[in-house]
């Protein structure tokens, strides 16, 4: 039923083509290898191999699209799966969406990840930040202070780019927003990830949310 719902939503967008579908995580990995899609939408809870393991396998296989870019991964989750979300962040997922969210958010998330951006449902970002605060050794205030200190160490331009990354914009969209070439944005993002000590854009977005760094994606 979940798969049927996802399919029904995505097929309303003429720019999205569904090339394959399955309810089994192991088969999902094989379908990604075979079809080389721009985006794989995985449920955190899947039979056979769960979505987190499937995402990790897709990353280990260095799955690429037909244009040579890495296949983006969007994870579907429900409330109460915060531990799984953190594991998926570490496994290289690019986007996280709540199953009960608005249909428009699913389309926006898939499109953002297809464009090379990270996409965090605001509800997911809030849950992850709250979970990190609740399970860490430091208090929520201390965690926010550390996040703000990390972000403050970035340059003004890097903070601007990080806020736009957290808002779900792709490199191309960020370049147009701040008036630079896309290669410059890529260099900024690489520097941001290195200086923050995070592995991917999604993890950087979580840290930005924790630091209270936000931007309006509409421009």
TrEMBL record:
Q: Which PROSITE patterns does the protein's record reference?
A: HTH_LUXR_1, HTH_LUXR_2, RESPONSE_REGULATORY
- What is the originating organism of this protein? Kitasatospora aburaviensis
Q: What is this protein called?
A: Response regulator
Under Gene3D superfamilies, the record lists: 3.40.50.2300
Q: Where is the Response regulatory domain?
A: 1-114
Q: Ranges for the HTH luxR-type domain?
A: 147-212
- Write down the InterPro entries for this protein, in alphabetical order: CheY-like_superfamily (IPR011006), NreC/VraR/RcsB-like_REC (IPR058245), Sig_transdc_resp-reg_C-effctor (IPR016032), Sig_transdc_resp-reg_receiver (IPR001789), Tscrpt_reg_LuxR_C (IPR000792), WalR-like (IPR039420)
- Supply the alphabetized keyword list: DNA-binding, Phosphoprotein, Transcription, Transcription regulation
Modification sites for 4-aspartylphosphate: 43
